[in-house]
Every structure is written in structure tokens, then in C-alpha cells.
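Shift notes (night). Ran NADH-ubiquinone oxidoreductase chain 4 while the centrifuge was going.
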Amino acid sequence: MMMMLMMMNLTLMNFKAPKLITLFLMIMMLKLTLMNPVKFFCHTSMIMGMDNFSQTLMILTIMISIMMISMMKTMSIMVMNTTMMMMLMMMFMSMKMTSFYIMFELSLIPMTIMVLGWGYQPERMMAGLYLLFYTMTASLPLLLAIIYLFKKTNSDFFMMKYELMSSTLLSISIMMAFLVKMPMFMLHFWLPKAHVQAPIFGSMILAGILLKIGGFGIIRFSTMLENSFMKTSQIWFSLSISGAITISLICMVQSDMKSMIAYSSISHMSMCLLSMLTMTKTGFMGSMIMMISHGLCSSGMFFLSNMNYERTKSRSMFINKGMMKFLPSNSMLWFIFSCLNMGCPPSINFFSEITIMMSMMMYWKMSLLYILPLTFIVSYYSFFMFSYTQHGQFSTNYSMSNIKLKEYNVMNMHMYPMILMTMKMEMFM
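Came back to this:
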């Protein structure tokens, strides 16, 4: 916490602030990585603690923040980034439902400012309103549920078990806030708008970290209210499994690169939700691996689409064609990340999908009939986007510039952790 407060002060200095903040973040990431939370909660105080889930997501938050800092051009954006990172870290470490809810809501403010302040088109006003009001409206029942639990038990600790209160209404009111954040099909309308209008650093933090808040909240609350969540899991499971296929089909008719990547995020997070709803250890493990792999892969794909946008001034697939002739190295990165997005073996995405399929089959054997078309469609639209943008007749209406070394570094920072984690999959067991 002291290091994060120091970084807040550093952002106000113009003298080598980005380099110092990056160094601070790397030291924090090293310290977090060396901790070994074996028990359910460890390093626990009355307010903050850590377990395997929060440790992994905190490391992911720092990694995405380091990549974002390298792309920032003004100090005001850096202040927003460090403020948001501080809120997210406090939320992942929260041991109390009240502090979790406060940080859950506060993290929305910097994201809205990023979309409204540094977005591209005039439509960013509507995108910011969608983002703000969807999250605020859906999280009000969560606040009422937390107050209800506190009134009944005089405690708002996550370590408690509230088994006596197995209420369907209670679980629905808690789930609504997290299903909008993930987002689930039919509650997803804010995400493509926010992604398309957000600047590159906004898209990176939105895809990399903010979508994972919903999954983290479900894991936290479902371990406390197991009976309530098991009662309603069938409803959410049926909606998610049909929604994942529908969203995958919507991906195939997109012409905007950013929009397609945003819709593919919804499809992947639907799979993540499906594994969490099984309420098994395998399901939680699969969803955690999917969150990490999707956070890095999706953030990398948004960055690649921005590299094309900066050179062609368009995100349309009808204009971004024949890129292999102009930027062959960039084309190689597109190929790698398209393969990672579709879950080609032996990537970490492949292992996460296999684990999720195992948990789904344990929950409901007939889900195999839905899994097979889903995996085919996911691989189809990733292949479609790569072939459509990299091959074909190129346009001569724009001039190209070479890729900067800084952009290669950011892409390597996305790619290397995924390769290294694939070699050490037992860390998630």
C-alpha cells in the first residue's frame, strides 16, 4: 500500500516518472510472485488478505499496468492509471464485503473518465453512459444483499459461511452485479460500445482486468453462499451456454476489428462463467486459467488492432487488407495471437478450455452438444479475422510507418508470460 501511495506522488513529477513507476511496479510484482499462499487465506489482517485467486489477479493487474504506462503520453492519464490500479489491488485484497463493494464501484470512475476524456469518436459519450449506468444499476441489489447479510449475522467477512440463508432472491441480487461486469449474454450491450470508443490503454485495462472483477466476485461470494448459488446455477448455466454460441455467431458478421475482439471477449467470459457455475474445484481452476490467459491474449489483440489503426487510421477490415506485405513481423504477431485466441494446443488457452469442458461435462453431460459447435465457431472467427486483415489486395490510399521497438516490447510482454505459464501449468493446480 505504501508503494502504491508513493507511485501516486511520482505521477505528479515530470522528471523520469514513467521509468520510476515501472521500476516500482516490477518490484511489487516480484514481491507478490515470491509469496506462497498455501491456505485459503494468508497474510491476513482484519481488513486485507490474500489467497491464490487474488494473488494471481493482482500480478495480472501489475503486468497490464506496466504495459499501459509505456503507451501513455500525458501525466493525467498516468494519474488515472495508478489510481485505478490502487483501487483494483485494494479490491482483490479486501476481506470485508463492504470494502470490496466500495472499491468495486470506485474502479468504475477512472474507466469512465478514460472513455469520455480520451476516446476517439463523438459516440464515446453514449458509451460512457452505458458503462456507468449498467454497472451502477446492477450493483445496487448487491449493496442491499450485503446490508441484509450484515443485519442477519453482524459480520461482513468473506471467511464466514452463510449456509442458513439459502435464498434464491439473495443469490440473484448478488449475481446480477457480477454478470453485468463479466458480462453475460443479454447484459453485454455496454461492452462493445465501451471497447470501440475507449483509447488503447482503456481497452487494455478493460479487457485485461475489469472483466475479471465479475469472475472474482462470483468466486468470493459463491464460496460463502453455496446452497443459494447451487439453486440458481441452472438458470445462469442455460443462459450462458446459449449466449456463448450466439455471441460467437455475432463475431462472424463484424467488420470492425476492435468490435470483433470485444465480442470474442464476451464469448470467452461466458465459458469462464459456465465453469464457475459448476461449483467444483476443477471449474474454479479452469475459470482462473481462462481469466489469466484471456487477460493477456485479449489485451494483446487490442494492442495489435491499435497498431494497425495508427498506420491506416481505420479499424475496418475492408481497409486493413494485405498487411502481410507492409508489416510481415506484425503479421507474425497477429498469427500467434489468433492461434492463442482460438485455443490452439499447447497454449495456456487450450488447457483452460479443456479444464472448463471437463467441469461442464461433470455438471451436465449433454453440454458436449453445445461445446463442439462453440469450439468450432471460436476457431473460425479468429481464423477469419487473421486471413481477412493480413491477406488480400492492399490499399494504396495510406502511407505506412515502421513498427517502433516500444510496440514490440509491449507485445513480447503479452506473449512471454503465456508461453512460460504453458510450461508450468502445475502452478494452477
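The radius of gyration is 21 Å. The mean pLDDT is 87.
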